[in-house]
Design goal:
One of its GO terms (molecular function) is sigma factor activity. This is RNA polymerase sigma factor. Belongs to the sigma-70 factor family. ECF subfamily. It comes from Lysobacter enzymogenes. The chain is mainly alpha-helical. The protein folds into 2 domains: about 20-115, Orthogonal Bundle (Rna Polymerase Sigma Factor, Chain: A), CATH 1.10.1740; about 120-200, Orthogonal Bundle (Arc Repressor Mutant, subunit A), CATH 1.10.10.10. The protein contains 8 helices and no strands. The chain has helices at about 25-30, 35-55, 60-75, 90-110, 135-145, 150-160, 165-170, 175-200. α2 packs antiparallel against α3 and α3 (about 60-75) crosses α4 (about 90-110). The radius of gyration is 17 Å and the shape is elongated.
Length: about 200
């Protein structure tokens, strides 16, 4: 069963998926109106693609993740009930969960024959600072691309999307300590990679 999106916490980042979709538009999409779904596609195309690139690390795969995500949203939108069933799940959280699952599924398929790092290495607390605010998007993208796939995924889900270590562990089918170790290791490496970029800025 998919996890619900993280509960709002004051110091969590605002996800790029956090778009308020009117119930009237959802009703039209549920009724099969193509124009309504096209509007939803336009609103979420960029956040889905960005998340997919950060996790999958490849624009071609990210395009496939985008297509598969939106196809699933189209075929399952009738199942989304959101606030009406008392779950309190916003539409963007439901759609984001589909995108994350799709991207991580591709990551896991590439990882099947690889040896994972020890879950217990380099544990750190949850308050590791995000990447330097001075880093522009292009520099951050170049630095993230140099990180191992699992490390990059943890960093993005934690810092950009606001998932907790417990949620990331469940999504990636790993342990909580694995999420913490990847966050600590990735944050250190990301800062090292960004320092030369800033020095030459």
């Amino acid at each position: 069963m998919p996890l619900p999106p993280p509960s709002p916490v004051a110091d969590r980042p605002v996800s790029s998926f956090a778009i308020d979709v009117p119930e009237s538009l959802l009703a039209r999409a549920r009724a099969g109106e193509g124009a309504a779904f096209e509007q939803i596609y336009r609103w979420f195309e960029r956040p889905v693609f960005t998340l997919a690139v950060r996790i999958a690390g490849d624009r071609e795969e990210a395009t496939e993740v985008l297509q598969e995500t939106m196809l699933k949203v189209l075929t399952r939108i009738g199942d989304f009930r959101g606030h009406r069933d008392g779950s309190g799940t916003p539409f963007w959280g439901w759609l984001r969960q589909i995108a994350v699952n799709e991207a991580l599924m591709r990551l896991r398929s590439r990882r099947r024959h690889e040896h994972g790092d020890s879950d217990e290495e380099h544990l750190a607390d949850d308050r590791i600072p995000p990447p330097p605010a001075a880093a522009d998007a292009a520099a951050l993208g170049r630095a993230l691309a140099q990180l191992p796939e699992a490390t990059r995924s943890v960093l993005w889900l934690y810092h950009a999307e606001g998932y907790t270590h417990e949620e990331i562990a469940a999504l990636m089918q790993r342990s909580i300590s694995f999420s913490k170790s990847q966050l600590a290791r990735g944050s250190r490496r990301l800062r090292q990679l960004l320092e030369p970029e800033q020095a030459h800025a």
